[in-house]
Fold:
Amino acid sequence: MSLEFLMGNHAIAAGAIRAGVGVVTGYPGTPSSEILETVVKRNPGDIYAEWSVNEKVALEVAAGAAYAGVRSMVTMKQVGLNVASDPLMSLAYIGVKGGMVVVVADDPGPISSQTEQDTRTFAVFAKLPVFDPASPEEAYEMIQDAFELSERLGTPVLFRPTTRVCHGYAPIEVGEWDVVPTSSGFEKGSRWVIFPRLSYANHRAIEERLPQLGEELSAYRFNTIEEVRGGEVAGTPVSAGDRGIATGGVSHAYVSEALAMLGADCRLFKVGTPHPLPAAAAREFLAGLDEVLVIEELDPVIERELLILAGEDRLGVTISGKRSGHTERAGENTVESVAAAIAKFLGMPAPIVPACSGAPTPPARPPVLCAGCPHRASFYAVKRAMRGRKAVFSGDIGCYTLGNAAPLEMVDTCLCMGAGVTIAQGLERAEPDATHFAFIGDSTFFHTGIPGVVNAVYNGTDIVLVVLDNSTTAMTGHQTHPGLGRTAQGEVAAKIAIAPVLASLGVSHIETCDPMQLAEAEAAVKRAVEAGGVSAIIFESPCIAVTVPGPMYEVDAQACTDCQVCIQRLGCPAIVRSGGVVSIDTSLCYGCSICAQVCPTGAIGVAR
Structure:
């Protein structure tokens, strides 16, 4: 054993390796991305890991390995589970042979996501067990338990860390990685073919299994009932009529800290496996209580399960939480928000949170495209080409979504991965007098962009596809994808070029150009618009994080007329104006030269 200071995602990876995982797949998505990357980094040499083209593919690859008795793990974020839901729902019926854990990182807030959807609710929908770790330490232990349960029951298991668990750090005792992945081999048989009759029989078996599993999980070490006296855990039984608090996940940490802050007395139920509810433990917790407050993030999963149990058992207990409006229905919990809710519930004075004396208020910093980002040049080239013409710009998920902000204002829609290509088609059918652009990144193109292109060609829809190829999956931490010629494990792989793919799909007009050459890029956009049908421009220029900076630029104060065209049109964070003088912050400049190309007086040039 060795003590290591680990991020939650690192701990999940370490726990999976310790559990003998043999195949790890996934698609990058904050806050989950570091899990697979850590498996690659710490790989003892016998684990296969890949960044799959999307979450559906990742889950199916992992399922195939589990069919053959290999322990497998899939990683994604909560919206990625939507993409993987088709195989997941069927896999719940089919089952697995080797343990299979689907790690889905939820993002309360949301901090970096389109939605606040709750994977615990998806577990209820899919009728699958779900583990909900409260800390990085628990995540390390729980992921090993999840593999064991999955393999014993022959079912995939969901594992739901949230952002604060994924990205929190803690000292963890890590065991030796002496468990070698094994395969018992694929056994042919009808159990792997999902015919309706088999589905019916398996559905019945699942319904019978869930309540039995709930009773079994009541003894699980991360489902606990604690007596809290004066804010500290005590062994003294709470008398009948007292109040209780139920919680789970990272909210347990907030509740524990809030109770200590308040010096409160109550019974505390910590739920580590919210589905199926550990029913026996829940009954023990509810016994003799008059009121219960449930504190959890996102959906009222624990609250709803306790309400059902209390109703079925005719328990005279009032259960409050999100449904009753006693806690917030959206967003993250904090120690302060939890303490306020608990104080009100227990009839105690609200806690006084000490202010940081003399601490300055940090300035607001809206998210912007990086200085030197090639997407800024791509957007500006399209915008300049379409001056005076009616155009709609459909965007997608990625760094380039930030093109929505002023002064570029070049992303009119953004729904989900791959939807820019298809939303543009619907808009074109409704508003054919406008030119419809669909912006999509290189990684997203491979993820879910291709079917949309096929649809546009097949149905003869007039759109201009703009592929922003910056040679990485930038938004989630620069992971590899099929267009880069290397795998997640650093091995050389077939490099799939986007232009030939588009040509094979029947796209009528394809041009590849460098957006940093503004005049050429603008001309390419105009040609694509005039081509009609499905036309495509591939703007190729690497992300600044994967390339070497060019020479920095500066403003010649004598030549500058303070027209502010560079500021008003580009929005580059490296260009600043202070005291009536425009200058370039050399600590941010990346030498992209776009500002020099738009300056009408030639006042911007390479720094001397």
About this structure: The domain at 553-606 is CATH 3.30.70.20 (Alpha-Beta Plaits).
